[in-house]
Model the fold of this input.
Amino acid sequence: MTNRLRIVYAGTPDFSVPALEALHAAGHEIVAVYTQPDRPAGRGQAVGAGPVKRCAQALGLPVEQPATLRSPEAVARLREHTADLMVVAAYGLILTPAVLELPRLGCWNIHASLLPRWRGAAPIHRALLAGDTETGITIMQMDAGLDTGPMLLKRPTAIGEREDGGTLHDRLAALGAAAIVAAIAEFQAGRLTPAPQPADGVTYASKIRKEEARIDWTAPARAIDRQVRAFNPWPVAETRWQDRQLRVWAAEPLRAASGEPGQVVEANGAGIVVAAGEGALRLTRVQLAGRRAMTAAEFLNAHPLAGARFG
Done:
């Protein structure tokens, strides 16, 4: 490959894996993969490698796992890689101005929204919660601000009417992989012009808090439906039933309802219909604390809900 770049790649979760694979497949030289230190995960809290580390190891790429990039030692180590470009995708550590200036071409970020909408940590969740009909990927030249740098390339995609956080995440991860490879090719061909982000339309995608997953049944059914879809597969929308957690994995809004918010007005093989502040929600897949997720029909076989109330 004549236009092969020396790239430092920085990412940590599943979202970051497709782009790493795509850059490697495109023939660029990945001189180092930066990812967050191994952490406990799962029920057993065993310490294990994250998705990007596992991918890098499978590809035979060198891995760096500093706890911070703020120290002089971390900056010096990064400088040793003499990278042309640093590509960042959901890395999770702050890049200081000293780091941003190290690569010859700077640092490019793969961001999961059409900037300037949904700057910040949780653009996929926030787009679904807001009922957006479109999102996408922005390849951005990083600066010292929070996702404020010039835009290099944008790739829009429609959000499906019944799409959830998991499916949108996976589609955007794949779109981001294609976009970063295209952006580099366009840059090398002299066809990439950085564009400043407009001042209008700025919104912030703050980090998701687990308490946001608690369902407020006085809200409209359509809003609760968006909550269920946005929080699948994490942190998963939940309600309370008989002082126990009941997670709601899948549901659909209904227009008509007769009952107080949180009241189960119908329960059969088609689902568990719960009255909301406006309309109702039919729960189709649920999970009682300590049990596996199951269809509403399976749940009702063991747990009759006549007269039940969620809250």
The chain has two domains: 6-205, 211-302. Residues 211-302 form a domain with the Methionyl-tRNA Fmet Formyltransferase; Chain A, domain 2 fold (CATH 3.10.25.10). DSSP finds eight helices and 17 strands in the chain.
